[in-house]
Amino acid sequence: MALGLPLLLVVVVVAASSRAGLADPAPAAVSALPGLPVAGLAVGFYNASCPEVEDLVLAEMRAIVAKDRTLGPALLRFMFHDCLVRGCDASIMLESRSKKGEQDAVPSYGLRGYEEVERIKAKVEEACPLTVSCADIIALAARDAVYLSNGPRYAVETGRRDGKVSAKSDADNDLPPPFSNIVDLKTYFSVKGLGWKDLVVLSGSHTIGSAQCSSFASDRLYNYSGRGVQDPSLNKTFAAGLREACEAGRENDTTPVYMDSTTPYDFDLGYYRDVLSNTSLFLSDKALMDDRWTRTYVERMAAAASPDEFFDDYAVAMTNMGRLEVLTGDNGEIRKTCTSYVD
Fold first, then answer.
1. Catalytic residue among 62, 69, 77, 81
2. CB-based contacts of 105, cutoff 8 Å, min separation 6
3. Domain containing 296: what range?
């Protein structure tokens, strides 16, 4: 989900919502969560120690997205890169002088949001010194990125602490590449304790933001299955537009392309309609049609008149991801700044 500014095709763009003039709703409670709660995590963890933290994060996110709407999707992606590697511990913020940290891994190429997380952390530190973890700020910022894109404002469990280890090899091995097939995708998720429904629901995050040509053009447009041809399943009209944006042979092509070409800044059901109509970007998107459970969900969301079911499911799936390998209690640390060197 690497982002940028130029357009792919002639598309209808709905501006990112600032929800200006409306009272922000209290975060909706997540009901019927599968599994047991994680000790040390709770909705409202900072109610006594930093009661204004969620308002502070939302205010900063609103200002960030108002200035550059591409940063909303970027900060949503940021949480995925944090949580799927060593758990939700803000290890993605740690830097390595020897270039052996998560930031130096191939999947982190084009990742944006480091400065914005630090900006939010500084604002929270002014109000509540050494109280709120960077890991929790990343999770809250991701939620608000969804909300400011006209998505749900779901409740976020907090109480995470920050990790002290960041390894390039972990990020290279733990993040599913965009050319993954359905077996690989389900394996990546199951290793983390996530199921098929988490996979298909969290894939819906691709309904906002854009991707660089280098992340999909070879697999879909020019060298499908190593045969030097276009993916035959790709919608022909859609593919022609992609070819105009993404030149053949450009290995590091950073040209950005919307992942939902109709409403790229609205958190809606557009992604599932794209997958069903063969107008999605990644092989990993297409792969959702190769499993009966994920395919059925895609078909139901694509035909849905309301996003309510997806929104409810998304709240649960993000909660599940937000519980991965967390550090709580006396584990980890609370840093004054999120950026720190590991070597």
1. 81
2. 168, 169, 170, 171, 172, 175
3. 42-341
